[in-house]
Amino acid sequence: MKRLIFIFILLFANNSAWAVVNPADGTSGNIYTEILIVLFLVALLLLIVSVVLLKTVRVMANEIKVPGIIPATEPTKMLEYEEWLASETAEKSSKLSSWNKLLGLRPISEEKDMMLEHDFDGITELDNPTPVWFNAMFYGSILFAVIYLLNYHVLEWSPLQDEEYAIEMKAAKASKSAFLAKARNLIDETTVQVDGNAAVLAAGKTVFIQNCVACHASDGGGTVGPNLTDEYWIHGGTVNNIFKTIKYGIPEKGMIAWEKTLTVQQTSDVSNFILSLSGTKPANPKEPQGTKM
């Protein structure tokens, strides 16, 4: 067994070193990486050799009377050694017996008691039963299969894979809707975007009719407030400027702040609606005011 482990380590070391020197992508390996791998393998081999030598020395010390370790001229120490060796042997035998019982194994010394009566050409058969642990795993797998079948296919207590997928997709859709609903409240004058969607413009028109016609007329031509359909803007004509003007107002010119009256989504919708009025022809447009944009 130790020889197999040793050979496996040598093969692994050879393959690892070859992979470093000749990597798959064709590039040269790192010299420091090669050195570290070689040092690691050398240290590992030294450790294995040291362990094997240590065990060999201990076995030799137990089997023979090594001068300086167990002097033959001292009967008392020899007796103590023999007692210690007997206790060690009994302890190892006890551990091995417990391990064999756990795995359902029987020692070679009991083979004569397990021989079957029939033989063929001098070849006999052992009546060695299957270990308990193997039987437990075998019958346990059968029990698991029965429970699985009842759970998923007979009683349908748990969903199948396609049903789990549908459930997960439904939950993800609900989570996405909740996130988008929350994200709408994060809109401000720096993040608002131009949106020409018909639903957005319709919602913005509703807000405009309800709150803005008194100063800007129903068609945006302007009365007290400026004309919103031409190319001239007093406080900027981008969607960001319009959003900011509606949100904070222009108190010195009579434009109130709508921050506490309209939601951020309503402010965004009406800003996009006002932007869509550019270029339309109102019935009685007010004269241009501000700077041409």
Strand order of the largest sheet: 1-2
Q: How helix-rich are the residues, as a percent range?
A: 55-70%
List how many beta strands DSSP finds. Answer: 4
Alpha carbon gap, first and last residue: 87 Å
What does this structure look like?
With 293 residues, this protein is mainly α. Among the domains are: 2-103, no CATH class; 198-292, Cytochrome c-like domain (Cytochrome Bc1 Complex, Chain D, domain 2, Orthogonal Bundle). It contains 9 helices and 4 strands; from the N terminus they run αααββααααβααβ. The strands form 2 sheets. A two-stranded antiparallel ribbon has the order 1-2. Strands 3-4 form a two-stranded antiparallel sheet. A hairpin with a 2-residue loop joins β1 (115-120) and β2 (123-126). α1 packs antiparallel against α2, α6 (198-211) packs across α9 and α8 (239-248) crosses α9 (264-276). The longest helix has 33 residues, at 31-63. The protein starts with a helix and ends with a strand. 11% of the residues are buried.
Short description:
The protein is mainly α and 293 residues long. It has helices at 2-21, 31-63, 75-103, 132-154, 161-184, 198-211, 213-216, 239-248, 264-276; strands at 115-120, 123-126, 232-233, 291-292.
